[in-house]
Design a protein that fits this description.
The model has no long low-confidence stretch (mean pLDDT 92). The protein has five helices and five strands, in the order E-H-E-E-E-H-H-H-H-E. The strands form two sheets. Strands 3-2-4 form a three-stranded antiparallel sheet, with helices on one face. Strands 1-5 form a two-stranded parallel ribbon.
């Protein structure tokens, strides 16, 4: 297993950024630990020409929407049988659950800090799993 220093915030950004309107993606440089962004509209002069073909660079696919949804469900479950949990659960069962969830959190600001801390913890765990799945022992910086 390769040991690398990787910026946790950068890999979380890579896991949570979707490119629906343009071509693009994030890559991990397995020699330096750097996260590289390749997308339309930015200067690609600093990117290696063989970014997509060289096994040194591993593409980081963003989380699927069901994985992000699962994080929200796990947060709601962590609240136990409370009125706040019921409201968030109801939000997740409505049309546009991601938007409804965020709106409900906004209405209950006391939950916002707990949600963001929970989400960051789960994203860090998923980043670690991604690294392990790719044969990398990450040291977060």
């Amino acid at each position: 297993m390769t040991s690398l220093k990787i910026n946790l915030d950068d890999i979380i950004q890579a896991l949570t950024t979707r490119f629906d309107m343009v071509e693009g993606g994030f890559y991990l440089d397995t020699e330096t630990g750097d996260i590289l962004l390749s997308t339309e509209g930015i200067d690609e002069g600093d990117l290696p020409e063989d970014l997509e073909d060289n096994p040194r660079y591993r593409q980081i696919d963003p989380l699927a929407s069901h994985e992000s949804f699962q994080i929200m469900e796990d947060f709601v479950d962590s609240l136990g049988e409370t009125k706040q949990a019921d409201k968030l659960r109801d939000a997740l069962n409505r049309r546009k659950p991601f938007r409804q969830f965020k709106d409900t959190l906004h209405d209950h600001t006391d939950l916002s800090d707990a949600w963001y801390a929970f989400e960051q913890q789960e994203l860090a765990r998923l980043a670690g799993e991604w690294c392990e799945d790719n044969g990398i022992e990450a040291e977060w910086v």
